[in-house]
Amino acid sequence: MRLSLPLTLGFLLLAVVAPAAAQESNALSPRVLDEAALPGVMAKAVDYFIVPGYRDLSRATADLVEASAALCETPSAPALAETRSAFSDVVRKWSMIEIVRLGPALEQNRFERFLFYPDRKGTGLKQVQAILAKRDESATQAQNLKMKSVAVQGLGALEYVLYGTGAETLNDEDGRFRCRYGMAISQNLTAIAGELLAAWEKPEGIQSDWKAPGPDNPLFRDNKEAATELLGVLVHSVEMVKDQRLRPFYDGVMDGKQEKGRPKLAIYWRSGNTMESIAANLRGLQTLFNIAGMENLLPSDSRSIAGSVNFLFKALISATDRVEGPIDAALADNRRRSRLDFIALNTADLLDRLNRDFGGAIGLGAGFSFADGD
Amino acid sequence: MDANRLIDRRSFVKMAGAAWMATLAPRGAFALERTDAVFASAFMAPDGSYGVATLTEEGKIVERTMLPARAHGMAFSPVTRRAVAFARRPGAYAMILATDGTAEPVVITTAEGRHFFGHGCFSADGRLLYATENDFSANRGMIGVYDGTHSFTRIGEFPTYGIGPHDMTLGADGRTLAIANGGIETHPDFGRTKLNLDHMEPSLALVDTATGALIEKHGLPPELKQLSTRHVDIGADGRIWFACQYEGARDDLPPLVGHFAKGETLTFVPLPERTTAALANYVGAIAINRREGLVGLTSPKGNVAVTLDAKTGAVVKEERVADAAGVAAAKPGFAVSSYGGLFMKRRSPVAWDQHIVRLGND
């Protein structure tokens, strides 16, 4: 039980070596939003991160449809491997961009339809199993499927089709129905990805609202509201990684007691994409932070906050990449579990840096998420 | 899901344990007497820790108590002198304080499958405590009923007849609860994400506390479906005043404040366009000064505090307050606080949270 403690402490020490920025909160420069820099940052977030992110997702889902079609036409082990690889690519691309959980992603339940997680009581799983058992033909047409439960039409359902009990039948004729259902899910995913891309690409649509805050803007009356939304993407997503993606399967070391973990609650455990997905979430966040030039919102005497943030992103991504293999095996291994402890600890630190240090320094007040009223 | 994932249960238990109790300041260490305390509000300290403070009529802090996590709204019973700080949604604890110092603080946690929304109130006799809660797997608003005197054990619950209930107040008859069902679906698995902004169901409900039955429910017209009814207070004449937060287009100018009484339809107050714009489609808190017939509103997004005449709805005062947070009846007018630490005219080194409760009968 206590074996992993020294390692955990080692990581703890590592965590505090991150360049400290907190002292700068007493610096002299005023903590007001850089009104001149903000619109450019918003524009870059849209043009260099959000639109390309949805474009990548759209392409990956189209490839998935193609691979699924080939599998259904000529079932074989290589065709199944091809489809599974296309699925994992969609998971990676989605995990990069799912952090933008706002606007078009929230309309028409697109987010939940693309990814229904967590499926806490296994209701979604039961619905998917029922479709497979009854060979419900209505689920094999994408236009019907989208009217069904959000749990049977997204990545979770497709993962079960490709990796769950009975998936081996996809290799041969027995799996015909299963394959067509998987195909309909792929088509549904590509339709949703296409809608998201179209909504963000439309010149007079949400992108123009993001790029030009002002009194007549339906989203942001001023630059501060826009900055709050953008930083909100980072803060809420780090919270998501910490509380909704890591904690369901691992609580860490508490009071000297090691959690055994709950591997079957982990996202994408069947396909072994759990940590890949979390790494992609973090890569997406770091990319957004840097490509949008969010550092430019910091007063010149506080630029080192961006350094701390990047340091933490780098350490987290590297630790996540090193929790290799299926999540149940990782949880059973002291070395990889101690990396999970490190990730849990440092996501909490990253959250604090973004929320309090960065948010405060760019003029969004004492801990920007404090200010969302309620 | 077990409620303990909603907050970090183990750190919570650790805080709520003996070591944490010892961090409370000893009695007698206060420069001010407890009897000077007329307000209470939750706050965040500069080190990021959370607490609740009582304050004098002038806004000077009398006493602070640490909290295990961030709180939101508060309730007070003038009969038992107990005050309650509710965890902010989707939090799972509430702390009950004896404002007269006759008992140690009591911490309660929500039942399995429920979390607090951050508001509550006592029954007229102080013997029961009601809290707005989320039955999140059913996406159904509930009122948790707790013993309000000693144990604060949960003794029952009844529905709010809506989704996403937020604030509530006890009606003038002492038996009816007026509940603001904000209409927004949330689930602790998704943190504070608002899941149904394109199909919200805001409403105001009157519920009989004796039977848990619905007395009447007022939905909002289709064009105001994105107007979340969130906070309520009661006027001297028993009218229920409500304040809203709009989730629709930022350049719309929806009505933000209204009132109603049992058996009546909702009446929205036609605020001047300038005031509506100043409130930034977002009223964070509402309070009524029943003695003076005034309605106080604050908007942290609009950085403004507005006072209305409760009879006519006319704007009496509009004051710029950066990051305006809470509002409560004062003598005269209103006490307004801010995230920046301002409370009335006094600044303390804390960030005041969204609500203030007045520790008195009026």
Describe the structure.
The complex is a heterodimer of chains A (374) and B (362). By secondary structure, chain A is an all-alpha fold. Chain A folds into two domains: 5-30 and 222-371; 51-201, M75 peptidase, HXXE motif (A middle domain of Talin 1, Up-down Bundle), CATH 1.20.1420.20. Chain A is built from 14 helices and two strands. Chain A has helices spanning 5-16, 38-73, 77-97, 110-114, 123-134, 142-145, 155-163, 176-201, 206-211, 223-246, 274-291, 304-321, 327-331, 334-361; strands at 253-254, 257-258. A two-stranded antiparallel sheet of chain A has the order 1-2. The longest helix of chain A is centred in the first third of the chain and has 36 residues, at 38-73. Chain A is globular. Chain B has 362 residues and is mainly beta. Chain B contains three helices and 28 strands. In chain B, strands 3-2-1-28 form a four-stranded antiparallel β-sheet, with no helix packed on it. In chain B, a hairpin with a 2-residue loop joins strand 26 and strand 27. The termini of chain B are far apart. Residues 1-29 of chain B have low confidence and may be disordered. The chains are: A mainly alpha (374), B mainly beta (362).
